[in-house]
Amino acid sequence: MYFYLKNLTPTQQIGALFVIVFGILLLASAATFLFSVRDHGDDPRAELRRTELKSVDAIIRTSWFMVFVFWVGWVTGDWVALTVFAFVSFFALREFLTLSPTRLGDHRSLVLAFFVVLPVQYWLIWAGHFDMFAVFIPVYVFLALPLASALANDPLRFLERNAKLQWGIMVCIYGMSHVPALLLLKFPGYDNRNAFLVFFLVIVVQVCMVTQHIASRKLNRPPIAPAISQSFNWHSWGIGIAVGSLLGALLAGITPWVPGTAFAAAFVACVAGSLGHFVMKALKRDRGIPSWGAQGQSVTGAGGLLDRVDGLCFAAPVFFHSARWYFNI
Amino acid sequence: MLAKMMSYFLLGLIRVLTGSQARWHGCPPKAEQRIYFANHQSHADLVMIWAALPKELRSMTRAIAAKDYWTKTPFKQWLTTAVFNVIYVSRDRSAEEDPLEPLFEALENGDSIILFPEGTRGFTGEPQPFKAGLYNLALKYPNVVLVPAWINNVQHVLPKGEVVPVPVLCSVTFGVPMQLGAGEDRRVFLERARAAVVALRDV
Fold this sequence. Notes:
The structure holds two protein chains of two kinds. Chain A has a domain of about 100 residues. By secondary structure, chain A is an all-alpha fold. Chain A is built from eleven helices and no strands. Chain A starts with a helix and ends with a helix. In chain B, helix 1 crosses helix 2 and helix 1 crosses helix 5. Chain B is globular. Chain B is an alpha/beta fold. Helix content of chain B is about 40%, strand content about 15%. Chain B has a single domain, classed as Glycerol-3-phosphate (1)-acyltransferase, CATH 3.40.1130.10. In chain B, strands 1-7-6-2-5-3-4 form a seven-stranded mixed beta sheet, sandwiched between helices. Chains A and B meet through helix 4 and helix 5 of A and loops of B.
């Protein structure tokens, strides 16, 4: 598979990938649809099957969404891809902050976060200021936003409010912005094919999480931290990581790397992504909600975008910086 | 034309900022004559509840706005007349006519109206006591359906005194229609209406 992919021209590679990926998704969608129209009866096992089908269906939808975003990024070029990801950041941050109640004194900092920090971060990527964009949020914004909050003269729960805002910015803007940043990395001998790197990251992390999800359902191991997640256990986590990394090695043909390096890169991304997803679960438990989107049925109208991209938000910066550090670019 | 574009712009803006989700909890959206009454915490309330209504109902539903504030500048006046087609009421009591007169006129014409019975924007989460206007309208037009609504979170989008709005997900919950009981006391009715609005906060 490695040599086959490597020897194709970029156009053929794209063609092959889209046939494979959209084909698999189409098959999966058709299969779940056929299952859903079959009459399962009323016994409890059928009920169980139905709920399982529902969760599988949700995962397939997510995958469609991610592939679509990747496709848009590929077809339209860097500038549009950056804008698309900036909007994803925007909507994810909107969801995050809706469920982290802020006070009126935070208004100015929120305005700064949405309308200054977010565009500047994406502009820095577009302009290729990699050193600046890596430190802009952790160093400069980290100081500037609490200042804006402090000037609002409201000490009540100050640390907590600022910590929440910082977390939201770190995950939704900083983490997310590293995905399109991959588009602008310059690997030697890998011209104009960086969209594959984005695709590589997304598919590897997504496959890892889906595998982990299925494994934890099939194996039924006791959860490690039941108060945080009913399904997370090291065993199925390991299976997810292994499958994700192996897929990374198989896909080495579309990366600038040999299979061994691609395996390592995929491994790093999978570990960061799946553990990040777990951390985000802890944040959700803190807010007392099962998912950022579950409120969609109740009061806030969140669509659950953050549930879909949170793993990626953690995987991307780690993947990006380890790749840059290792290859010295 | 310009007004149409402005209304699309505002609709798009409010959707990007708040998601502008409508939750028809106690009644479906329906083309009957209604009085929607809701809590009031921000200028964005008006746009919010207007955006939450389906397009077909939007054109026949008119909000109430304070005349002194919303006719102060030509832009404000244009916005409220051409885009929102609001009904102006004057807040100062010295006016000769009944301050509710413009509302009577609109209801006679068959329009639905959006009312913020608190009269002014509140600071706290709890709505202030309702003004008597709602009671007078219910008494005079017993056939108009009274629909309570709770606007959630909007005070975070645009707090009183701020200019730049912030994106926060918001929703409008419409509750079960209520009626003025036969011979029901004004204070009792207003308190009941307020409770109906507050109750929607937690559904």
